[in-house]
Prior knowledge:
Elements: E1 5-13, H1 18-33, E2 38-45, E3 52-59, H2 62-70, H3 72-80, E4 85-93
GO molecular function, one term: monooxygenase activity
GO cellular component, one term: cytosol
Pfam families: ABM
Amino acid sequence: MSEIITVVAVLRAVPGAAEQVAAILADAVEPSRAEAGCRGYVLHHDRSDASRFVFVEQWAGMEAIEAHRQAPHYQAMGKALAGLIAEREVMLLDAKA
């Protein structure tokens, strides 16, 4: 039985790059949802801060997360975001209740 791991990734675009970052992140959503270990993958845009984006993802364990990180669309997203992200925080969360 696999454990579901929730990933929350918070990204802040450099000044002036929010629209470009939004497009790059949006391109990763559908291919990520199609991955075998993906149980949920939603991109959010902060209403109070146009430069902040939040992914809330659910994966069927660490193997699925590692496979996602190696996926061509994830690698392409990382390259496309080079120089466009001012801050990045990624949390891997286990449900406790």
